[in-house]
Write a structure and sequence with these properties.
alpha+beta; binds FE2/S2 (inorganic) cluster
């Protein structure tokens, strides 16, 4: 029996010791937004936040998550509002098939929690374990940068005409 809090809801679950965390999420809890792309820890499609850290859930046994707080893509939106990273991926056309998108967004949320104003190089470094096979990374980097700006509340107030003249 393990206890996990997934997307702010606590679950007590009887599981087989060999169950992978990604299987617990997808098959037991039916949270199918977390994808399986490779099963060998290379593609990042299965990335979730565990106690705030991005982890590839295909590389971890569910029992290792006992007591943990897990956030999956389904938990990013809150009170009916999309997370800024979700809005940015949509606005910047940072997805095509979308298979890689949940993992990329979770990785980005992890990055932005530690580095609120990342450079493009830092964004590219952070997402290097997440493979996208159809979009290319340009718009993904734009989306993460734009979500960072929104999350910092960094939109500069418009200058008044008097300030512009000076
Ligand atoms: S399915 Fe986990 S890294 Fe690819
Ligand atoms: S959008 Fe298709 S794999 Fe990334």
């Amino acid at each position: 029996m393990i206890t996990v809090t997934v997307n702010r809801t606590e679950h007590e679950i009887e599981i087989e010791p060999s169950l992978l965390l990604v299987e617990l999420l997808r098959e037991t809890l039916r949270l199918t937004g977390t994808h399986v792309g490779c099963d060998t820890s290379q593609c990042g499609a299965c990335t979730v936040l565990i106690d705030g850290n991005a982890v590839k859930s295909c590389t971890m046994l569910a029992v290792q998550a006992d007591g943990a707080e897990i956030l999956t893509v389904e938990g990013l939106a809150k009170d009916g509002e999309l997370h800024p990273i979700q809005r940015a991926f949509s606005a910047e056309h940072a997805l095509q098939c979308g298979f890689c998108t949940p993992g990329l967004m979770i990785t980005a949320v992890d990055l932005l929690s530690r580095t609120p104003a990342p450079t493009d190089a830092q964004i590219r470094h952070a997402i290097k374990g997440n493979l996208c096979r159809c979009t290319g990374y340009h718009n993904i980097v734009n989306a993460v940068r734009s979500a960072a700006t929104e999350m910092r509340g960094a939109a500069m107030p418009m200058k008044t005409p008097a300030e512009v003249k000076r």
